[in-house]
Amino acid sequence: MKRSDASSADRRGRRRFLKRASLGMATLGLVGCDRLSQNEQVVDTLDLAEQLNLRVQRFLAGERGLAPEYPTSMIDQTFRPNGSTDPQASRYRQLAAGQFRDWRLGINGLVDNPLSLSLDELRAMPARTQITRHDCVEGWSAIGQWRGPVLADLLDRAGVQSGARYVIFHCMDQLGGEDFYYESLDLSEARHPQTILAYSLNDAPLPIANGAPLRLRAERQLGYKMAKYLSSITLATDFDDIAGGKGGFWEDRGYTWYAGI
Length: 261
Ligand SMILES: Nc1nc2c(c(=O)[nH]1)N[C@H]1C(S)=C(S)[C@@H](COP(=O)(O)O)O[C@H]1N2
Ligand SMILES: [Mo]
Prior knowledge:
The protein is of the alpha+beta class. The protein folds into 2 domains: 3-61; 72-250, Alpha-Beta Complex (Sulfite Oxidase, Chain A, domain 2). The chain is built from 7 helices and 11 strands. The chain has helices at residues 3-28, 32-40, 48-61, 90-97, 119-123, 151-158, 187-190, and strands spanning 105-109, 115-117, 128-136, 140-148, 166-174, 180-186, 195-198, 200-201, 204-205, 215-218, 230-236. It has a 5-stranded mixed sheet. A 4-stranded antiparallel sheet has the order 3-4-8-9, with no helix packed on it. The radius of gyration is 20 Å and the shape is globular. Bound molecules: ligand MTE and molybdenum atom. The site of ligand MTE has 19 residues, from strand 5.
């Protein structure tokens, strides 16, 4: 083969790769130029290394946008609970005693239509079922089947306003008797097709140990991002004024905010 043939074949290959990559990103709604430029403003919140990691992961995500999903045969019989497993906060105890009939999920902050949804209302929505592997930084994993509405659908119902950049998840448990647990995602991760609010684990109602009545599943992130015992979700421009200001209970204690895997 002549040299020029080889390099033009190379170029064609590269073009095909780029086309595939951008197609993948577009169909999954993952990155897109608008999302990337939105993330540019994240710099003031995240440190530079973390920001680079986020960008590299998001670029690769064009090729492997979805976290792996597994067959039912691989589901672990017991899904190991971790962190808070039996919240003692009085509000939580009351709601649990009433089988969460009086519980509501609030969606507020920078939205056009603030929402307050019961468990029955959430169960009536279109739902996604996914069998995924949970990875905890403490060095264990477990495969489970989760079911619940896709967060993007809820965000669309609430009508996210243009100034919103983060989705903050407020929880009902105080881990280790300290602050209430909380977490946050940027809108790109929050709108990922596998980011759901799960009310069931392995075809049964979500057990208290695993976050009843509702917990976040963000399948491309480490375990600590997946807030359990949800009470409300806030859309905001930043999380500077919440608790320690780092965007999550463990982030306030030194973990990185971007926990992509
Ligand atoms: N509200 C709340 N969410 C939480 C935690 C917690 O203690 N409280 N622990 C986190 C951590 S570190 C992990 S690994 C997972 C554990 O989920 P599991 O109990 O279903 O295994 O929940 C995450 N979400
Ligand atoms: Mo964890």
